[in-house]
Design brief:
447 residues; alpha/beta; globular; binds pyridoxal-5'-phosphate
Length: 447
């Protein structure tokens, strides 16, 4: 494949336009396509559309293809498994790749155990990993209520949707939600939801949870768990202060609640550590993983302390969950991540973030650059003092980047996220920054 970006046609090209027209007629209109990219093939951090246009991929299929598109070692493992068997259902039969993956997860996930004993439940997606976590927390504690956070995204099935509060369009028309979910403010220090300063944001958000929600609305001894993204994803790539997560850890231990860390987007090396929790020195009772774990094959994992996962045979299962092909893809993905990609995410992520921060002098529309590793958010504002959200500008920026050959996604109402495959090189990071700079100039009319 040629070097990205290389845009040869007007976008969308004729082949892409024809496929999009067919899609419009027959595919659910509930998907959110911001620009007309129609995939033909990919390699590493580069993707080509059906008209031969080549793009640098800073979206990775929504933070999924951490090892890059079609990493040869992952593909080889998949092909070998495909020739042996495709499916046998771990619900009723045994197969070794699933056991091996459970063993790997036990050694990796940020779960605090005194005895090192961890068990894993397998599903097909992030939302199912959350459903399992919610059911497990209820089952293990014999309590029903859940605390989640404003701005969070945990999925779109009815249990996880009740915890999701990223955008109302995700909930509108689908109520009533599962009862017993309370939303607390998340420590977004750039834009504190309770109006505190950056220095006091974490303490004030925690105080709202401890002194309001857990006093006026729900008794702590009726809360099964606190569900939290250690770094908020869809909500805008928001990194809370360590103190925020550490206090949630204390609070859950104090009241016998489960701390459920949703690492679906932030896990599997994306932040420059295997899990985002590792940045904050926090361990959870239950951890959910999906997206990056199998390089693009569907897989969700819910892991917990063995002492928590004691539900009996028949209590929870999924026909396809932990499919053997997905499991071998995950095992190879983990090997490749450990072999250097987590470190690359850290090094190239720091480099990319510093280059993006350096653009702040030139572009006052950049209000904030934040993140860890290759999970980087850039929030756009019309005025740095009032922090008025540059929402339409964000939409235009995403389009401008697309027409110049970079795929990027929005996050929250007025941020963009850089979530490229973790194989991104410094040269590719430079390309992304150059095009980001040009696109911002096009949007704001400043050069
Ligand atoms: N949790 C988080 C943090 C996510 O970012 C997502 C998806 O974006 C989900 C859960 C749901 O995952 P899925 O789309 O695989 O159901």
């Amino acid at each position: 494949m040629s070097k990205a970006p290389n845009i040869r046609t007007k976008l969308p090209g004729p082949n892409a336009a024809a496929i999009i027209a067919r899609d419009r007629a027959r595919v659910s209109p509930s998907y959110t396509r911001d620009y007309p990219f129609v995939m033909a093939k990919g390699e590493g951090a580069v993707v080509e559309d059906v008209d031969g246009n080549v793009f640098l991929d800073c979206a990775a299929g929504i933070a999924v293809t951490g090892t890059g598109h079609s990493h040869p070692d992952v593909v080889k493992a998949i092909v070998e498994q495909v020739h042996k068997y495709l499916h046998m259902s771990g619900t009723d039969f045994y197969y070794e790749p699933q056991v091996r993956l459970a063993e790997e997860m036990a050694a990796l996930v940020p779960i605090g155990t005194r005895d090192g004993e961890v068990r894993s439940f397998f599903s097909n997606s992030g939302t199912e990993a959350i459903e399992a976590a919610l059911k497990l927390a209820r089952y293990a504690t014999k309590r029903v209520n859940i605390i989640a956070f404003l701005g969070s995204f945990h999925g779109r099935t009815l249990g996880s949707l009740a915890a999701t509060s990223s955008k109302y369009v995700q909930r509108k028309g689908f109520g009533p939600m599962m009862p017993g979910v309370y939303h607390a403010p998340y420590a977004n220090c750039y834009r504190c939801p309770v109006g505190a300063t950056p220095d006091t944001c974490a303490a004030e958000c925690l105080s709202y949870l401890e002194d309001q929600i857990l006093v006026h609305l729900v008794s702590p001894d009726e809360v099964a768990g606190i569900l939290v993204e250690p770094i908020q994803g869809e909500g805008g790539y928001v990194v809370p202060p360590a103190q925020f997560l550490q206090r949630l850890r204390e609070l859950t231990s104090q009241h016998g609640m489960m701390l459920i860390a949703d690492e679906v987007q932030s896990g599997m090396g994306r932040t420059g550590r295997m899990f985002a929790c590792d940045h904050f020195d926090v361990t959870a009772d239950i951890v959910t993983v999906a997206k990056g774990i199998a390089s693009g094959l569907p897989l969700g994992v819910t892991s917990s302390r063995a002492a928590v996962m004691t539900w009996p045979p028949g209590a929870h299962a999924s026909t396809f969950g932990g499919n053997p092909v997905s499991c071998v893809a995950a095992l190879e993905t983990i090997r490749v991540l450990k072999d250097g990609l987590v470190r690359n995410a850290e090094v190239v992520g720091e480099y990319l973030m510093s280059r993006l921060r350096a653009l702040m002098d030139k572009h006052p529309i950049i209000g904030d650059v934040r993140g860890k590793g290759l999970m980087i958010g850039v929030e756009l504002v019309r005025d740095r003092v009032t922090k008025e959200r540059a929402t339409t500008e964000r939409e235009r920026l995403v389009q401008e980047m697309f027409t110049r050959g970079v795929l990027i996604l929005g996050a929250g109402r007025n941020a963009v996220r850089f979530a490229p495959p973790l194989v991104l090189t410094k040269d590719q990071a430079d390309t992304a920054v150059t095009i980001f700079d040009e696109s911002l100039s096009a949007v704001t009319g400043r050069s």
